[in-house]
Amino acid sequence: MRREIKFRGVSTVLNKWVFGYYWRQNEDGSAHIMTDVPFNINFEVDPDTVSQFTGLYDCDKKEIYEGDVVVSTDDSFAKANDTLAIKFGEDGFVVYNPSCCKACKEGTGCICYLGEVCNVLRVIGNVWDDKSLVLLD
């Protein structure tokens, strides 16, 4: 499977999300994202907000990024309206369901690979824009 490799991060100047290609400056280690639409513009970003595009889309065709928080739209994967977290695991992007058990709350269980279930998920936000959505550390 080929997927577009891109990232997002919050610009330190604009205080808004920017999307593009991630790089770190050698001199000071600062994090940057180079956009390609509409122009190639370089933005310094908060390194704590940098997240990678998973290559997948939710049920509304919205891009899913690491750190996004999603809800299940039906009971085929998780109870409808359950809040779930997108994380990067050992084998790629995974969905954690912290409401299902203690093991998942600790990040060790209840994992499903994102590609298997993204068609029944809806992105409702991310862990940076809404601190109440932080599900797992």
What can you see in these coordinates?
This protein has 137 residues and is mostly beta strands. It folds into two domains: 7-49; 56-133, Roll (SH3 type barrels). 6% of the residues lie in helices and 41% in strands. It has two helices and eleven strands, in the order E-E-E-E-E-E-E-E-E-H-E-H-E. It has helices spanning 102-105, 114-117; strands at residues 7-10, 17-24, 31-34, 42-45, 51-57, 63-65, 68-72, 83-89, 92-96, 111-113, 121-126. The strands form two sheets. The chain has a six-stranded antiparallel sheet, with no helix packed on it. The chain has a five-stranded antiparallel sheet with strand order 10-9-8-7-11. The longest helix is centred in the last third of the chain and has 4 residues, at 102-105. It is elongated. The mean pLDDT is 81.
